[in-house]
Design goal:
This protein has 459 residues and is an alpha/beta fold. The protein has a single domain (3-28, 37-458), classed as UDP-N-acetylmuramoyl-L-alanine:D-glutamate ligase (3-Layer(aba) Sandwich). It contains 15 helices and 20 strands. The chain has helices at 36-47, 71-82, 110-121, 145-150, 155-162, 193-198, 215-222, 241-255, 266-269, 284-294, 305-310, 320-331, 387-406, 416-433, 445-458; strands at residues 3-11, 15-24, 60-69, 97-105, 107-108, 125-127, 133-135, 171-172, 181-186, 201-206, 227-232, 260-264, 270-272, 279-281, 300-304, 335-339, 345-349, 353-355, 369-373, 413-415. Strands 4-1-11-12-15-16-17-19 form an eight-stranded mixed sheet, sandwiched between helices. It is globular, with a radius of gyration of 22 Å. Residues 288-440 form the Carbohydrate kinase PfkB domain. This is Carbohydrate kinase PfkB domain-containing protein. InterPro entries: PfkB_dom (IPR011611), Ribokinase-like (IPR029056). It holds the Pfam family PfkB.
Length: 459
């Protein structure tokens, strides 16, 4: 029985994040909490282009960490872990088994090769016979700045990095400057992680590579074979909706077979001041144009509740269910997911039978089916970064599993029940992500299913 290799491609920039948090310093006298006016003052300081390293809270010790991140990294690793040890369940036409490899399509600079190599060399990993890397839980190492200044990457180092299947499609540019997006995240000292997450300050110090439909991108597209899904996950407006449209159409022209096309609205929503790095939001008129263009090619779109309301006029009082219904009905996306963090998520799909084949044929006749899903309780909550990326990635992974085991054709069609069961497992997988810090905490499909079973019994 033959084993084929298929690809799931994550498109977007890798980030190098500076994460600033605070913990109580018991050696100092701590005032009674931090007032909202104090937090507003701190936020103004950060957004006025001052270095967050100069910011302090009385009675709290500041912790500064650097780590790699970005939706492509969180999504790719989440997908890889989720699909672990289930290859024998995956089959295609003519009863041929296949393995899906998640890969990152991005551009990096020469010094970024060192950053990525150092990061992964600093993690314990095991390479199996096909060179795919399995990550294990450990803290994300801090980048050594002095090593960064002196290291001169050569071709052999880039080749070594590309031996990891997730990186074998990266384009290393000759430019010495970094092409990673640099974000600075400041979490003020609040009593709960949820409050801290909602009040974080976000500054973009460098947008990294900007994607254009140039010859280098065209060359990368020609290297694509047996694609089962494209996930467009921008973090800093590194590409727009027109790029997504052109890229997808060119891939379809090259491979002439069906694949899922998915995206997260986050990167299109963000508007970045090129001088200060301050992150704001695009206008609703622009976002409506984005949704209209994306609806022609996107199979699955993910938004959180606040993002969804920013895309809909006069929506301040709309519920997640109403947002999902509106976006599905008005734009015709086959599947719309609206997430709400620890409060669960909502999924709207275009009817009982969902066809995701390309080219997309919009259906206005069906009434959207909308369903709410509660979240699954994690053992602990340490870090919510990458939770949305994990949800989308595992949702797509589960759709591909169910499509492969339900029929032996390459047509992408699902029942609403299959979609909703996939959402349930994605919610469960996401609950593992928040239990650890950094690029860790990813679950397998088996673990996600076990948590669904355990918590369903206890409900």
């Amino acid at each position: 029985m033959m084993l084929n290799e298929k690809q799931v491609i994550f498109v977007g920039n890798i980030t190098q994040d500076t994460i600033i948090t605070f913990e109580k310093d018991h050696h100092q006298h701590t005032p009674n909490g931090i007032s909202s006016s104090q937090h507003h003052h701190i936020e103004q300081e950060l957004n006025s282009d001052e270095d967050a390293n100069s910011i302090h809270y009385q009675g709290y010790r500041k912790i500064v960490n650097k780590s790699l991140g970005g939706s492509v990294m969180f999504g790719c690793l989440a997908f890889q872990h989720y699909m672990k040890n289930i290859d024998n369940q995956m089959y295609y036409s003519n009863n041929q088994h296949f393995k899906i490899h998640p890969k990152i399509l991005t551009k990096i600079g020469k010094h970024d090769v060192m950053i990525l190599s150092q990061f992964f060399n600093g993690l314990e990993h095991a390479a199996n016979e096909d060179d795919s890397i399995t990550m294990v839980a450990c803290e994300s190492p801090i980048i050594n700045k002095q090593f960064h200044k002196t290291f001169q990457p050569d071709l052999s180092e880039a080749k070594h990095l590309k031996r990891m299947k997730m990186f074998d499609m990266i384009l290393v540019e000759e430019d010495q400057s970094s092409k990673l997006t640099q974000y600075e995240l400041l979490y003020p000292p609040f009593d709960s992680l949820e409050n801290a997450s909602n009040s974080r300050s976000l500054n973009c110090r460098d947008r990294g590579s900007i994607f254009k439909q140039d010859e280098s991108i065209n060359l990368m597209i020609r290297e694509l074979h047996q694609v089962r899904a494209l996930l467009f996950v921008p973090v800093a407006a590194e590409f727009d909706h027109h790029f997504v449209n052109a890229f997808t159409n060119q891939v379809f022209k090259e491979i002439q077979s069906d694949f899922l096309v998915c995206t997260d609205i986050q990167g299109y929503l963000r508007k970045i001041d090129t001088e200060s790095g301050q992150v704001s939001h695009n206008t609703i008129e622009y976002l409506e144009e984005v949704l209209e263009t994306l609806s022609k090619i996107i199979s699955v779109i993910k938004l959180d509740h606040d993002e969804a309301k920013k895309c809909i006029p006069n929506s301040s009082e709309m519920t997640p269910e109403e947002c999902a219904y509106h976006i599905q009905k008005n734009y015709g996306f086959p599947i719309v997911t609206v997430t709400m963090g620890s409060s669960g998520c909502v999924c709207a799909c275009e009817g009982e039978n969902i066809q995701l084949s390309l080219p997309r044929l919009r259906s206005n006749s069906s009434t959207p089916i909308v369903k709410y899903f509660s979240s699954y309780k994690p053992v602990r909550v340490l870090d919510e970064t990458g939770a949305g990326d994990t949800f989308l990635s595992c949702f797509v992974a589960e759709l591909l599993v169910r499509n492969s085991t339900a029929n032996t054709s390459n047509k992408l069609s699902f029942s609403s029940e299959q979609v909703f069961e996939s959402v349930k497992l994605a919610c469960s997988a996401t609950s593992f992500r928040v239990e650890q810090r950094g690029l860790n905490g990813f679950s397998t499909r088996i673990q996600a299913q076990q948590r669904v079973n355990q918590q369903t019994v206890n409900m």
